[in-house]
Specification:
The chain is built from six helices and 17 strands. It is an alpha/beta fold and about 350 residues long.
Length: about 350
Amino acid sequence: METRDFNFYLPDKSIAQTPLENRDDSRLLVLNKETGETEHSYFYNIINFLNPGDCLVLNDTRVLPARLIGEKEDTKGKIEFLLLKRKDLDTWEALARPGKRAKPGSRFIFGNGLLYAQVINISDEGSRIIKFEYAGIFEEILDKLGQMPLPPYIKEKLEERERYQTVYSKNQGSAAAPTAGLHFTKELLRKIEEKGVKIVYITLHIGLGTFRPVKVARIEEHRMHSEFYIVDKLAADTINNTKKQCNKIIAVGTTSCRTLESIADEDGKVKPGSGWTDIFIYPGYRFKIIDSLITNFHLPESTLIMLVSAFAGRERILDTYKMAAQKGYRFFSFGDAMLIE
């Protein structure tokens, strides 16, 4: 299958630049993946599409203020690092811009000397391995100096950091937000639980794969970057019991979906544990566990649109995206939501 098969035209005006004042005021497009029928609603009505006994699975990862802007120690040239993965206490894998300034041995300074970094290696994929030097607690320094790693298509300044976090974010470690979860409020989650819907939290720390475009012509040749997940016993037991009782598993976001599909066996049963996954889901994949998916509208030719196409069908997704753009839906991270059932 060709990467270009997942391309579509989207005008710039359709790309959401800022979050809405109220998270759950975003629009909701409901797609029946079997019939292609659609319904238009608002996210605060998501509860109407969930039934008692269903299980809602959310990714509770928390985004690091992972964008560091500093200067080269000798030439004072500007540098930007995006932290992706912690290798050990003071060593990280990061993207560098401009990369030509970040050669092995190069040193950089941040916050007038609060933080120093040295490039110690370059990975096969071009990311930098950097070692930090500082006095104090790294997380506190990062919180002071770091910026939220917003995607490059967002040009507007984010006024409140927490708007790029879900209200249930807990385990810090992501380089991007699980954006399907940005639509939930604490009040909406409370109402969903009161209806009898089970809510479980799993963790997938989102890394390089989110920023890495598909550069190969044939999607089968693309390789995903591995990401760390955690699924505890309570979550696994709740999910398994839900399946046993023939109720639905609703994954919130592609990250929750990928985690569940990574750990499920062929019978759709999951086991608690932690580890790394590089699962790549594209059309032809047979889903083992999820029944419905809450997700945003994704970039052309991205692994994310390939995943939702695997779940609902490529032509159906592309037709739905075209219709959504025509009806003024907002796309990408701060955009509107879809429920595919």
